């Protein structure tokens, strides 16, 4: 049963996973009972439930949809479950499940960690001015995300990383921007050149214990420890008024 549910789970799109997940708890529910108004309209808005997250996902269903879901599952005879599993699989293939919006801006962020210290730049202008941050910016037309990360690091800090690897993908939702910002986070320990001040950033080395979180984006303390511990992660963050973090989910992943 558990094995089968995992197989089904892997084949389902995110929205449907809410339903498949409970197969492991030995309850079954048909896809058509999912509260589509709750699950299907997610885009860059943060008033809607988050899909990424490690804790029991079924808890994120709410209201009438959840009540309908629970009572239907409880009253179902064990013998009927096989038929319902079939119905889930075929319904998923045939029904048009609305997908989350894929419209997003792509950005990069590179953090250098060397000899127990982290290189951060004080942003001198534009978005995030006054915050310490890694080095990065928007991916430009015609370049890959990796190329953009290397270019932005060079332009903003004067150094070239030689062992850069992607460690995280963070998605930011701002209440004043219909597009999500997808920031690809890179980690490096080796580099060529010496950090120097540029028009955009003033670089400084901080020991890990002294990372100045009070003058950084408020999501940073949530994922820097994962980054510095060598983990890969995905996060989803909602902001109002540009800088007020209102909700988030974050999870460690085995691949990006
Ligand atoms: N640490 C951290 N970095 C963030 C957050 N949100 C966010 O956009 N960033 C990063 C991603 C980018 O590296 C940078 C924003 O890019 P940018 O506006 O400086 O891009 P850019 O250099 O291409 O822009 P421009 O000055 O040329 O207009 O900030 C956050 O919450 N935490």
TrEMBL record:
Substrates-to-products reaction catalysed: 2-oxo-ATP + H2O = 2-oxo-AMP + diphosphate + H(+); 2-oxo-dATP + H2O = 2-oxo-dAMP + diphosphate + H(+); 8-oxo-dATP + H2O = 8-oxo-dAMP + diphosphate + H(+); N(6)-methyl-ATP + H2O = N(6)-methyl-AMP + diphosphate + H(+)
EC numbers: 3.6.1.56
Keyword Repressor set for record: no
Gene Ontology CC: cytoplasm; nucleus
Needed co-factor(s): Mg(2+)
Gene3D superfamilies, alphabetized: Nucleoside Triphosphate Pyrophosphohydrolase
Signal sequence range: none
InterPro entries xref list: 8ODP, NUDIX_hydrolase-like_dom_sf, NUDIX_hydrolase_CS, NUDIX_hydrolase_dom
GO process terms (BP): DNA protection
UniProt subunit comment: Monomer.
Function text: Oxidized purine nucleoside triphosphate hydrolase which is a prominent sanitizer of the oxidized nucleotide pool. Catalyzes the hydrolysis of 2-oxo-dATP (2-hydroxy-dATP) into 2-oxo-dAMP. Also has a significant hydrolase activity toward 2-oxo-ATP, 8-oxo-dGTP and 8-oxo-dATP. Through the hydrolysis of oxidized purine nucleoside triphosphates, prevents their incorporation into DNA and the subsequent transversions A:T to C:G and G:C to T:A. Also catalyzes the hydrolysis of methylated purine nucleoside triphosphate preventing their integration into DNA.
UniProt-recorded name of the protein: Oxidized purine nucleoside triphosphate hydrolase
Species this chain originates from: Marchantia polymorpha (Common liverwort)
Lineage of the species this protein comes from: Eukaryota, Viridiplantae, Streptophyta, Embryophyta, Marchantiophyta
